Amino acid sequence: MQLARRLELIEPSPTLAITARANELKAEGKDIVGFGAGEPDFDTPAHIKAAAIEALNKGFTKYTPVSGIPELKQAIITKFQRDNQLDFKPNQIIVGTGGKQVLYNFFLAVINDGDEVVCPAPYWVSYKDIVRLAGGEMKLIHTTFESGFKLSPHDIEKNVSAKTRVFILNSPSNPTGATYTPDEIRALAAALEKYPDLLVVTDDIYEKLAYGTDVLNIATASEKLRPRTVVVNGLSKAYSMTGWRLGYAGGPKEIIAAMDMIQGQSTSNPTSFSQKGAVAALNAEQQCVEDMRVVFEKRRDLAFNLLSNLKGLRVFKPQGAFYLFPDIAGLTAAPGWPDLKKRTGETDTGKIFSTGLLNEKLVAVVPGSAFGYENGFRISYATSEAQIEKGLGRVREFVDALWA
Ligand SMILES: Cc1ncc(COP(=O)(O)O)c(C=O)c1O
User: Fold this and answer.
1) Which CATH superfamily is domain 5-43+288-403 in?
2) 245: left (phi over 0), alpha (psi -120 to 50) or beta
3) Residue 215: in which H helix or E strand, if any?
4) How far apart are CA 314 and CA 404, in angstroms?
5) Cα 54 to middle of ligand 1, angstroms
């Protein structure tokens, strides 16, 4: 079957592939511990579900305006004022089918063939493929374990130039959990301000999941960047609403109008009754968000402690999101490594490790190469403490056996 050439530009989502393989093994009756999926394990809070059910019962089941209902736009405007001290008008807001679709609309709206998009690595898997589908060229800035997987202003100066069209910021980060402090954000903003034609897109989807640091939005930090920054956020992670498919953005009205036009010729409006649930989520008391954050912080500490002190692993303690991203370059020196490489048939370090771990210990993690960092793997600790203890106990056995 002949398919379009654009398919050569992209790869299937590796996180979804790992989850599919883990589900296959589960279906065979294997006792899998899944650390692959990037989704909170909590149920959506009851008041949010109630609002959507009420909307359904009242017949709110028809098309809505493409970029979202006015009531939800107002709730988003209030959220941006309350949490980020950012003032937007309704024509500066778009609601889409998840943060992913909003990002997709954004890149289709601003990128021409060959335009350069600068992105720190490790990065969230979909940025690369979305940028490529839009015709852009990804330029990665590789961060290191030593720098806490963060960029310095010097990295910006070295890698961003007058020909860069978009800079992507994601803090707290998927996959590392790295979270810039307010001072670090101000320093990055100062470096980016020097490029007057540069657009900034800040993906704030993990904004509410930060541990021990304030999260400052780069548009809040910099008046100069504000008119050319698009702030993307969504309901999936903060409110445990991944399946509702609700994301949004605030930004310059010309870009938002272009994104609206693209959305109008693809998905049209996000689901009507999901939007009513989102109104309830954003307008109600925010205690449920904090309650989930506290649980995640406890799990982070548990998972971090269990993974620390394993020979050959360096574990970075993240300040946000719900991931750990150990560096495993040191494991390649283990006596059992060459044989593991043979058994898995893989060549890159993260894939050798994660394939072996899944096949031999029934623990699903995502190889670092999925995020542009070969010598690592990602675990999502958005699962119960019992699963964390069980799964990471198996990781310890797996690693110990490589050194035996
Ligand atoms: C960094 C980042 N951005 C955006 C998204 C998109 O989330 P959604 O489309 O569910 O809003 C995700 C989901 O995993 C993510 O990790």
Assistant:
1) Aspartate Aminotransferase, domain 1 (3.90.1150.10)
2) left
3) none
4) 19
5) 27
How far, in Å, from the CA of 21 to the mean position of ligand 1? 21
Candidate CATH numbers 3.90.870.30, 2.60.40.3080, 3.40.640.10, 3.30.420.270; the one for domain 46-283: 3.40.640.10
- Residue among 124, 241, 322, 325 whose CB has most ligand 1 atoms within 8 A, to mutate: 124
pLDDT for res 181: 96
Q: Determine the distance separating the centroid of ligand 1 and the alpha carbon of 371, expressed in angstroms.
A: 14
Check whether 17 has a pLDDT greater than 80. Answer: no
Please choose from 171, 174, 201, 244 the residue to mutate so as to test ligand 1's pocket, defined by most ligand atoms within 8 A of CB: 174
Phi, psi of 240 (to 5 degrees): 55, 60
Q: What is the pLDDT of residues 52-92, one digit of tens each?
A: 999 999 999 999 999 999 999 999 999 999 999 999 999 99
pLDDT bin (cut points 50, 70, 90) of residue 295 is very high
What is the rounded average pLDDT for all residues in the chain?
96
- Our measurement of the distance from residue 9's CA atom to the centroid of its chain's CA atoms, rounded to an integer in Å, reads 21
Q: In the 3-class helix/strand/coil scheme, how is 314-380 assigned residue by residue?
A: ECCCCCECCEECCECHHHHHCCCHHHHHHHHCCCCHHHHHHHHHHHHHCEECEEHHHHCCCCEEEEE
Closest CA to 206 of 245, 166, 236: 236
Span from the CA of 136 to the centroid of ligand 1 (angstroms)? 20
pLDDT surpassing 80 at residue 281: yes
Ligand 1 pocket by Cβ (under 6 Å): 38, 98-100, 124, 170, 174, 203, 205, 234, 236, 242, 247
Gap from CA of 100 to ligand 1 centroid (Å): 6
Per-residue pLDDT at 319 exceeds 90: yes
Strand, helix or coil for residue 91? helix
What is the crossing angle of helices 46-57 and 272-283, to 10°? 140
- Quick one: average pLDDT of 302-317? 96
Other Cβ atoms closer than 10 A to 358: 22
Residue nearest ligand 1's atom 7 by CA? 99
For the chain, the domains span 5-43+288-403, 46-283
Among residues of the chain, what percentage have pLDDT more than 70? Answer: 100
20 confidence band (pLDDT: 50, 70, 90): confident
